[in-house]
Amino acid sequence: MYAPAAVFLLFTPTRAAAVLEQHFAWLRDKPVTCDGYSGYPSLTGTIQWDFVHVLRKAEKLAVDGVDAGDEARYDMLKCLYHDAKQVRTPAPRAIADLTRRAHALAASYKDHEMRTYLANAIPDLFTFLEHPGMSPHSNDVARQDQADAAPLIPAIA
């Protein structure tokens, strides 16, 4: 079962994997919701790529109007997110269908950066469906009142 969410803020001059290991080694083997930073897999093997980060990036592309189809792609990505949240139990068939749809959507982007970003996110985009209680994003925790959030961890230089 997935543990309750918490926010940890750590300010350091680098995002090196060694910083993660030093301060968050206790997270090893626990599912973690985070952005796609490449250092996280060295800490834990179970990553949920923050779905809202993906949506924001797609929204920005749709608003900027680079390609007429980007708005429709953003709408399709929102539908994918909605459909993923409707899955109530770990269902390999549903996850496979969502993954197939995500790959098709990623391939449809003409913007190379977005296409690559989404393709890189896909392997960790539906992790929350395999861990009941895990959120597909970190926004719920980020919205908590500071008094309810985990204490700030001071930077260690």
Q: How would you describe the overall organization of this protein?
A:
- This protein has 157 residues and is mainly alpha-helical.
- The protein has one domain.
- Helix content is 47%, strand content 4%.
- It is built from 7 helices and 2 strands, in the order αβαβααααα.
- A two-stranded parallel ribbon has the order 1-2.
- Helix 3 runs antiparallel to helix 6, helix 4 packs antiparallel against helix 5 and helix 5 runs antiparallel to helix 6.
- The longest helix is centred in the middle third of the chain and has 17 residues.
- The chain is globular, with a radius of gyration of 17 Å.
- The protein starts with 16 loop residues before the first helix and ends in a 15-residue tail after the last helix.
- The C terminus is likely disordered.
Short structural description:
The protein is mainly alpha-helical and 157 residues long. The protein has one domain (17-142).
Topology (SSEs and partners):
Elements: H1 17-24, E1 32-34, H2 40-43, E2 47-49, H3 51-64, H4 70-86, H5 92-108, H6 112-121, H7 139-142
Parallel strand pairs: 1-2
